């Protein structure tokens, strides 16, 4: 496809209606080059060889067309995706789940090493149309016979050159031999070494080749920073940055149209001049918002990629990627809203530890390292508010005697009538002027202090940006500070274990498993701690999630004392185990005392 050709929108492609609806929910309208060139061929059932860098949008390039051909009435594997790492396998599985949100009965199962095999076996028994896994764990299931590929329609080899580098070539060859001969194959790789070419020649039939040249780069006038922060803390981080970072006008990018409105409302409630810009707005309203931005009656714009296309406002000094984009080209387009015509601009990216892969892809595409940004502390916020207050007072003194004369008379009357000192009166007036925006005490909450210390320790040990070492430890889930306790209507009676609840909630929500807190099982219900700030829509969707064919019916925990005497079965088993161990120990000692002595003498 040449650059002069018109790229069709997703709605114009022959994708399944449910898939198109999900794409629109995400906020996509126009496909990226790899998507525009790959989707038509994969919809036709052709084998495909894709040469593209990470971050070009290739996951959607194969997920959207293959999902359109899935039969949700059949619960056996129809698509197998092989990925080099567990992180990529999880990301790809999440993408499939996101694009299949309007396909009732659809299931995707990630399988990878280091995860409990029992949970994967249960997932395979329940049935999943899409399997995303690392080669080693997929081989384990095939050898066990727990994964059947008899009805497989398509195989995707994602980041094949990375799998080659990690030594998975022989594993891939073995897995491909277990798949039906009549199946579609899509192979994606950033480079094409000889061994990957050999796999393509052996297992792809008359493939279409799609090659995307990396041509993205950013200008030197844009300063790029990354702030590593989890989803439930992003609003607090953004608020601190807005308080401390000096900016003229700012555009904040989110992924969905709903998020533009929600974030704009939250920022306005915190005293910022913000407005949403999305595709649901009429042209007249859109022009009105942009005109307010240009005339400085509006400072912050929250927008989706599509809504901000073509936006050029001279006073735009900052771009914030509140949600990391799905591909590198979108990132370059986003930050291009600032730093224009030689002006200086700043681009701030919010990312989680799980999104480091995309962060590295962005750095490769822009050919610039993105520096780590220190999140402003409460002391920084306090100092900035005091500094701004002093500046406002100083500007008021510059108004001149004519405008301040009446107020001086009032001050003199108050001092005379109330017999108060100038300092007390000034302090009272300052309090009245600033009571809607008080000065924080500058102290971080204890939980945030601890997290900051741990983060600084990790950076000191591994440098500013480690790879695997920066991930929060799993045992942090035992700390329930900043979390809300919920009740779910499944328990030991249904034969569940904590892993079932973690898997169900992590798969059906945006809450990573490492952010799920302490779980306690009872006979007919269970309790689980989840991060505070969970929105109503997420809670509503989790109520319908089923574990062992029973909906969770999740609700906020109310301690009425009815379960206080019931102890979790795990503790009772531990007690029984200790008693059995003591009995065996005593019995062994008794038997030893009755043994013939000559055995010891012969030894």
From TrEMBL:
<protein>
    <recommendedName>
        <fullName>ATP-dependent RNA helicase DeaD</fullName>
        <ecNumber>3.6.4.13</ecNumber>
    </recommendedName>
</protein>
<feature type="region of interest" description="Disordered">
    <location>
        <begin position="436"/>
        <end position="486"/>
    </location>
</feature>
<dbReference type="InterPro" id="IPR044742">
    <property type="entry name" value="DEAD/DEAH_RhlB"/>
</dbReference>
<dbReference type="GO" id="GO:0033592">
    <property type="term" value="F:RNA strand annealing activity"/>
</dbReference>
<keyword id="KW-0963">Cytoplasm</keyword>
<keyword id="KW-0067">ATP-binding</keyword>
<feature type="compositionally biased region" description="Basic and acidic residues">
    <location>
        <begin position="563"/>
        <end position="585"/>
    </location>
</feature>
<feature type="region of interest" description="Disordered">
    <location>
        <begin position="563"/>
        <end position="603"/>
    </location>
</feature>
<feature type="domain" description="DEAD-box RNA helicase Q">
    <location>
        <begin position="8"/>
        <end position="36"/>
    </location>
</feature>
<dbReference type="InterPro" id="IPR034415">
    <property type="entry name" value="CsdA_RRM"/>
</dbReference>
<keyword id="KW-0378">Hydrolase</keyword>
<keyword id="KW-0694">RNA-binding</keyword>
<dbReference type="GO" id="GO:0005524">
    <property type="term" value="F:ATP binding"/>
</dbReference>
<comment type="function">
    <text>DEAD-box RNA helicase involved in various cellular processes at low temperature, including ribosome biogenesis, mRNA degradation and translation initiation.</text>
</comment>
<dbReference type="InterPro" id="IPR005580">
    <property type="entry name" value="DbpA/CsdA_RNA-bd_dom"/>
</dbReference>
<dbReference type="GO" id="GO:0070417">
    <property type="term" value="P:cellular response to cold"/>
</dbReference>
<dbReference type="InterPro" id="IPR012677">
    <property type="entry name" value="Nucleotide-bd_a/b_plait_sf"/>
</dbReference>
<dbReference type="Pfam" id="PF25399">
    <property type="entry name" value="DeaD_dimer"/>
</dbReference>
<dbReference type="GO" id="GO:0003724">
    <property type="term" value="F:RNA helicase activity"/>
</dbReference>
<dbReference type="InterPro" id="IPR027417">
    <property type="entry name" value="P-loop_NTPase"/>
</dbReference>
<dbReference type="Pfam" id="PF00270">
    <property type="entry name" value="DEAD"/>
</dbReference>
<dbReference type="InterPro" id="IPR028618">
    <property type="entry name" value="DEAD_helicase_DeaD"/>
</dbReference>
<feature type="domain" description="Helicase C-terminal">
    <location>
        <begin position="234"/>
        <end position="382"/>
    </location>
</feature>
<dbReference type="InterPro" id="IPR050547">
    <property type="entry name" value="DEAD_box_RNA_helicases"/>
</dbReference>
<dbReference type="InterPro" id="IPR014001">
    <property type="entry name" value="Helicase_ATP-bd"/>
</dbReference>
<dbReference type="GO" id="GO:0005840">
    <property type="term" value="C:ribosome"/>
</dbReference>
<dbReference type="InterPro" id="IPR014014">
    <property type="entry name" value="RNA_helicase_DEAD_Q_motif"/>
</dbReference>
<dbReference type="InterPro" id="IPR001650">
    <property type="entry name" value="Helicase_C-like"/>
</dbReference>
<dbReference type="InterPro" id="IPR000629">
    <property type="entry name" value="RNA-helicase_DEAD-box_CS"/>
</dbReference>
<feature type="short sequence motif" description="Q motif">
    <location>
        <begin position="8"/>
        <end position="36"/>
    </location>
</feature>
<dbReference type="Pfam" id="PF00271">
    <property type="entry name" value="Helicase_C"/>
</dbReference>
<dbReference type="InterPro" id="IPR057325">
    <property type="entry name" value="DeaD_dimer"/>
</dbReference>
<dbReference type="GO" id="GO:0016887">
    <property type="term" value="F:ATP hydrolysis activity"/>
</dbReference>
<dbReference type="GO" id="GO:0000027">
    <property type="term" value="P:ribosomal large subunit assembly"/>
</dbReference>
<keyword id="KW-0547">Nucleotide-binding</keyword>
<dbReference type="GO" id="GO:0006401">
    <property type="term" value="P:RNA catabolic process"/>
</dbReference>
<dbReference type="Pfam" id="PF03880">
    <property type="entry name" value="DbpA"/>
</dbReference>
<comment type="similarity">
    <text>Belongs to the DEAD box helicase family. DeaD/CsdA subfamily.</text>
</comment>
<keyword id="KW-0346">Stress response</keyword>
<dbReference type="GO" id="GO:0005829">
    <property type="term" value="C:cytosol"/>
</dbReference>
<feature type="domain" description="Helicase ATP-binding">
    <location>
        <begin position="39"/>
        <end position="210"/>
    </location>
</feature>
<keyword id="KW-0347">Helicase</keyword>
């Amino acid at each position: 496809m040449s650059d002069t050709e018109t790229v069709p929108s997703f709605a114009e492609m022959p994708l399944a209606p449910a898939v198109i609806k999900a794409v629109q929910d995400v906020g996509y309208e126009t496909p990226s080059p790899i998507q525009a060139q790959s989707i038509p061929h994969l919809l036709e059932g052709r084998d495909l060889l894709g040469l593209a860098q990470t971050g070009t949008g290739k996951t959607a390039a194969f997920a959207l067309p293959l999902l359109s051909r899935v039969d949700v009435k059949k619960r056996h594997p129809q698509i197998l995706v092989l990925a080099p790492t567990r992180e990529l396998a999880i990301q790809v599985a999440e993408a499939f789940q996101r694009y299949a949100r309007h396909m009732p009965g659809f299931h995707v199962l990630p399988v990878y090493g280091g995860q409990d095999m029992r949970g994967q076996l249960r997932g395979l028994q329940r049935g999943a149309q899409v399997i995303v896994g690392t080669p080693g764990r997929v081989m384990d299931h095939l050898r066990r016979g727990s994964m059947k590929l008899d009805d497989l329609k398509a195989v995707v080899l994602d980041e094949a050159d990375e799998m080659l580098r990690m030594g998975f070539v022989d594993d891939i060859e073995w897995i491909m031999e277990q798949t039906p001969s009549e199946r579609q194959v899509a192979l994606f790789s950033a480079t094409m070494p000889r061994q990957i070419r050999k796999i393509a020649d052996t297992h792809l039939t008359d493939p279409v080749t799609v090659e995307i040249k990396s041509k993205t780069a950013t200008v030197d006038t844009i300063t790029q920073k990354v702030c590593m922060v989890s989803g439930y803390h992003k609003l607090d981080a953004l608020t601190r940055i807005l308080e401390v970072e000096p900016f003229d006008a700012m555009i904040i990018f989110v992924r969905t149209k709903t998020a533009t409105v929600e974030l704009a409302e939250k920022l306005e409630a915190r005293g910022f001049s913000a407005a949403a810009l999305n595709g649901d707005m009429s042209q007249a309203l859109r022009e009105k918002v942009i005109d307010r931005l240009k005339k400085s009656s509006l400072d912050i714009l929250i927008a989706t990629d599509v809504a901000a296309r073509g936006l050029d406002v001279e006073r735009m000094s900052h771009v914030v990627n509140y949600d990391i984009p799905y591909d590198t080209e979108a990132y370059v387009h986003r930050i291009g809203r600032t730093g224009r015509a030689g002006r200086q601009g700043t681009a701030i990216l919010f990312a989680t530890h799980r999104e480091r892969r995309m962060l590295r892809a962005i750095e490769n595409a822009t050919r610039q390292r993105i520096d780590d940004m220190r999140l402003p502390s409460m002391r920084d916020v306090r100092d900035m508010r005091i500094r701004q207050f002093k500046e406002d007072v100083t500007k008021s003194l510059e108004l001149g005697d004519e405008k301040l004369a009446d107020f001086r008379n009032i001050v003199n009357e108050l001092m005379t009538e109330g017999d108060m000192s100038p300092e007390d009166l000034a302090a009272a007036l300052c309090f009245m002027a600033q009571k809607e925006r008080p000065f924080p005490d500058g102290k971080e909450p204890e939980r945030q202090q601890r997290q900051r210390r741990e983060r600084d320790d990790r950076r000191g040990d591994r440098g500013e940006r480690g790879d695997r070492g920066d991930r929060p430890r799993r045992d942090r889930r035992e700390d329930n500070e900043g979390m809300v306790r919920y009740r779910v209507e499944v328990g030991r009676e249904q034969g569940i274990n904590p892993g079932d609840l973690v898997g169900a909630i992590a798969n059906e929500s945006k809450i990573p498993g490492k952010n799920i807190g302490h779980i306690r099982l009872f006979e007919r219900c269970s309790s689980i701690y989840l991060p505070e700030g969970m929105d109503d829509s997420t809670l509503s969707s989790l109520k319908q999630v089923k574990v062992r064919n029973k909906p969770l019916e999740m609700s906020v925990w109310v301690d009425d004392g009815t379960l206080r005497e019931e102890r979790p079965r795990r503790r009772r088993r531990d007690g029984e185990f200790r008693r059995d161990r003591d009995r065996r120990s005593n019995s062994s000692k008794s038997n030893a005392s009755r043994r013939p002595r000559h055995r010891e003498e012969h030894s």
